[in-house]
Specification:
single chain; three-stranded mixed sheet; 3 strands
Length: 291
C-alpha cells in the first residue's frame, strides 16, 4: 500500500513539473528567485494534505471564493449581495446537461489527471506566436479549483496554486464529485450560480428535466456567463459555442445526425467529408468517451 501511494505521488509530481515547464515557456518566465519560490509553493501544496480539499468529500460549501468576491462587488454596485443558488446532487442533474457541459468546457474531463498537457502545449505554442496570452487550456478541475479557493488575480504564482489544487482534487475527490461541484457552483448568468438555479431561471424547470437543446444552450453560456443568456438565439457567438458542443457530442457518439441537425441547423458533414468524420468517431477509444 505504501509503495502504491509513493508511486502515485511520483506520478503527480512528474505531471506537475512538466506543467511548470510548459507554463514557463507560455508566460516567458525565467528561473528567477520568484519563479523558484512559486514552484516551491506548488510543491508544498501537492505533498502535504489540504484540509479544504478533503473536506469537500462530504461537505458542500455555502459559497466559493469567486462567489464571495462576486458578492462583494455586487454590494458596492447595488447594495445587495443576494445570489440565486440551489445545490442539487449529480444524480438530480440531466445527463443531457452533464455531457453538454463537458463537451463545452473539457471534452477529455474523464480521462485526464486534472490538467490537459496536450491542450496546454497547444495553447503555449499559439500564445507564443501571438506574443501574449490569448488562449487558455484550463480543465473543468482547474476552473473549479480556481473558483473554490483562489482570487481572480492573473499571475504565475496563482496558476501554480491552481494546478496544485486541481491535482489534489483529482486525488481526493474523484471525477463525479468534481463535476457535481462544478455544475453547482459555476456562474450561469448575472447573480445566478449553479445549474439548478439557472434551469429554473431560464426554463422554469428542474435541471433534471432539461432537454438536449436546452442543455446545449445552458452549456454555451459558460463561456461568458455575465453577458450571455440561453435565449440569445441570434447571437453569433452562441451559435459558434453550440456548434463546438454539437461537434464534440457527435464525435463522442452521444448524439446522432438528427440531434446534431436540431442543434446546429445543418448535418455534421457533407458527403465528401462524411468518411473523415466517421473515421474520427471510430478513432475515439472507449475510455475517451464522456460517459
Amino acid at each position: 500500500m505504501k509503495k502504491k501511494s509513493s508511486n502515485l505521488v511520483l506520478r503527480i509530481l512528474k505531471i506537475f513539473f512538466t506543467v511548470v515547464i510548459i507554463l514557463l515557456v507560455t508566460y516567458s518566465v525565467l528561473f528567477s528567485l520568484a519563479g523558484t519560490a512559486a514552484i516551491i509553493i506548488g510543491y508544498q501544496l501537492i505533498t502535504k494534505p489540504i484540509k479544504e480539499v478533503k473536506a469537500l468529500k462530504t461537505t458542500n460549501p455555502t459559497e466559493t471564493a469567486f462567489m464571495k468576491q462576486y458578492k462583494e462587488e455586487l454590494v458596492r454596485e447595488s447594495g445587495s449581495d443576494t445570489l440565486k443558488h440551489i445545490f442539487v446532487p449529480l444524480d438530480s442533474i440531466s445527463k443531457n446537461l452533464r455531457s453538454s457541459v463537458i463537451a463545452s468546457e473539457d471534452d477529455g474531463f474523464y480521462t485526464h489527471p486534472g490538467i490537459d498537457l496536450e491542450a496546454m502545449i497547444q495553447a503555449a505554442a499559439y500564445n507564443r506566436t501571438q506574443g501574449e496570452v490569448k488562449r487558455g487550456a484550463s480543465t473543468i478541475t482547474q476552473q473549479m479549483a480556481k473558483n473554490l479557493f483562489l482570487s481572480k488575480e492573473r499571475s504565475f504564482k496563482r496558476k501554480i496554486k491552481e494546478l496544485a489544487y486541481a491535482m489534489l482534487m483529482e486525488r481526493y475527490l474523484g471525477k463525479d464529485r468534481i463535476l457535481e461541484l462544478y455544475l453547482n457552483y459555476a456562474q450561469w448568468g448575472k447573480n445566478i450560480f449553479g445549474c439548478e438555479a439557472a434551469s429554473q431561471e431560464y426554463f422554469k424547470k428542474s435541471s433534471y428535466n432539461l432537454s438536449r437543446t436546452e442543455s446545449a444552450r445552458l452549456a454555451a453560456v459558460l463561456a461568458m456567463p455575465s453577458k450571455l443568456s440561453p435565449h440569445h438565439t441570434k447571437s453569433i457567438f452562441m451559435s459558434k459555442r453550440i456548434a463546438v458542443i454539437a461537434n464534440n457530442l457527435y464525435l463522442h457518439k452521444i448524439i446522432n445526425d438528427s440531434t446534431y441537425f436540431s442543434l446546429t441547423g445543418k448535418l455534421p458533414a457533407t458527403k465528401d467529408d462524411s468518411i473523415t468524420v466517421e473515421k474520427k468517431r471510430e478513432e475515439i477509444p472507449e475510455q475517451r468517451k464522456m460517459f
